Each structure stands twice: as structure tokens, then as C-alpha cells.
From TrEMBL:
InterPro entries on file: NAD(P)-bd_dom_sf, Sc_DH/Rdtase_CS, SDR_fam, SDR_PhqE-like
GO terms assigned for molecular function: carbonyl reductase (NADPH) activity
The organism of origin for this protein: Macaca fascicularis (Crab-eating macaque)
Signal peptide: none
Name of protein: Dehydrogenase/reductase 4
SUPFAM superfamilies the UniProt entry points to: NAD(P)-binding Rossmann-fold domains
């Protein structure tokens, strides 16, 4: 092939990639799917809910407070996304049952933290995908946060176990482990500029993460592109050491 022809082909390919990355082309990888995202009215959860909806899923957002749910739903619906919401405290049995009932009404297939409660319905629909959310603290515990660290480490084991148990039912289970993401939950680590700079020095990628850095990973894990992936934990931590 002549150099000019090869260059032209490369330019056309580059333009195609640029169009795709800028959102000019969109293939809705989660079309006809329903995603239940708990704790999803702020921070990482909200970014995940938005991305799943942008990728074609109908999303059910939930939180402990009605006003937070209403605000999140209004924001996402205002962006033209297919979203509904419900109040749920995942620590209360009655709320778990009510949330499951709500999501069954719209044929939910992708819950977050209530896997066992919805597995029968997911199985009826031919399978599904579960993404749990752990933390970099599961690998690199933070002093003074013992219960949190232990709970997140346990979640890695739960993900592995559920992946084995549910694979015969065509249900995949994977885990997201965010590093230091700039949210209200982690503000104690970045509100002070000097402290933020010290935190950046510990990272290979010298910036703090944003909620959107996590959202695309979750969308991928829920999509058919990840149909051969289960039992894995994806760390989004800017290069923070992440091995037990």
C-alpha cells in the first residue's frame, strides 16, 4: 500500500475513534437491561447510575432519604435518562424486601448489595451481573478504620464465593475497588490542600480519582463485553498497591 493510502486510512480510523470517544457514536451496550444501584444519590454511586443509564439501562437509584432520591432522579431524568428511584436502607430487612419488590416490578436484573435476594428473579430471566463495591482499603488498610477495612476485605472473598456459586445460573459477580476518589465520603483526605498534595505523592498517577473514573468500569462489567469475566476485582486506584 502506498504511503499516501496508508496515511489516509490511518486518518479515517483516527477520526472514527475520535468520534466514538467524543460520544458522537453510541451503541447502548446495556440496552434492555435494568440496573439497581444502591447508595446512588451521590458520589461514586451516582456516577455509576448515570453511566449505566447513559449506556442504555433503565436504572433504579436508591438511598436512605427520600429527598436525596427525588433530587437524583430529577437530575438524571432531566438529562433524558431512564431512571426511577426508591428509598432503601440496605441494613433494614423490611427495606431490602421492599426494594426487591420494587425492582421486580420493572424486571430488575442487576442489583448491587442484595444479591441473594434477587438471584431467583435474575435466574428466571436467564442470568445477570452483580458488581459489588469494595475499596482500596481491602488491600491497603487505613489506620483507625478497622471495621471499614475488614468489611471491605471480606467483600473480596464474598465476591469470589458468589461468583463460584452463581456461575451455573449464568450470573456473574465481580467487584470494584475504588482508591482515593474525590467524594464527600473521602473529603477528610483532600479538603486540606497540603494533605491532598501528600496523598497525590503516594499515587503513581498524580491526581485524585473522580467518581466517573469508576463508572465506566462498572458499565463494562455489566455488559456483554465482560461475559467471560467473573470473580474478579478491578482496582481503580491510580496505581496504589493492591495485593493482599
Amino acid at each position: 500500500m502506498h504511503k499516501a493510502g496508508l496515511l489516509g486510512l490511518c486518518v479515517r480510523a483516527w477520526n472514527s475513534v475520535r468520534m466514538a470517544s467524543s460520544g458522537m457514536t453510541h451503541r447502548d451496550p446495556l440496552a434492555n437491561k435494568v440496573a439497581l444501584v444502591t447508595a446512588s444519590t451521590d458520589g461514586i454511586g451516582f456516577a455509576i447510575a448515570r453511566r449505566l443509564a447513559q449506556d442504555g439501562a433503565h436504572v433504579v437509584v436508591s438511598s436512605r432519604k427520600q429527598q436525596n432520591v427525588d433530587q437524583a432522579v430529577a437530575t438524571l431524568q432531566g438529562e433524558g435518562l431512564s431512571v426511577t428511584g426508591t428509598v432503601c436502607h440496605v441494613g433494614k430487612a423490611e427495606d431490602r424486601e421492599r426494594l426487591v419488590a420494587t425492582t421486580l416490578d420493572i424486571n430488575v436484573k442487576a442489583p448491587a448489595l442484595m444479591t441473594k435476594a434477587v438471584v431467583p428473579e435474575m435466574e428466571k430471566r436467564g442470568g445477570g451481573s452483580v458488581v459489588t463495591v469494595a475499596s482500596i482499603a481491602a488491600f491497603s488498610p487505613s489506620p483507625g478504620f478497622t471495621p471499614y477495612n475488614v468489611s471491605k476485605t471480606a467483600l473480596l472473598g464474598l465476591t469470589k464465593t458468589l461468583a463460584i456459586e452463581l456461575a451455573p445460573r449464568n450470573i456473574r459477580v465481580n467487584c470494584l475497588a475504588p482508591g482515593l476518589i474525590k467524594t464527600s465520603f473521602s473529603r477528610m483526605f483532600w479538603m486540606d490542600k497540603e494533605k491532598e498534595e501528600r496523598m497525590k505523592e503516594t499515587l503513581q498517577i498524580r491526581r485524585l480519582g473522580e467518581p466517573e473514573d469508576c463508572a465506566g468500569i462498572v458499565s463494562f462489567l455489566c455488559s456483554e463485553d465482560a461475559s467471560y469475566i467473573t470473580g474478579e476485582t478491578v482496582v481503580v486506584g491510580g496505581g496504589t498497591p493492591s495485593r493482599l
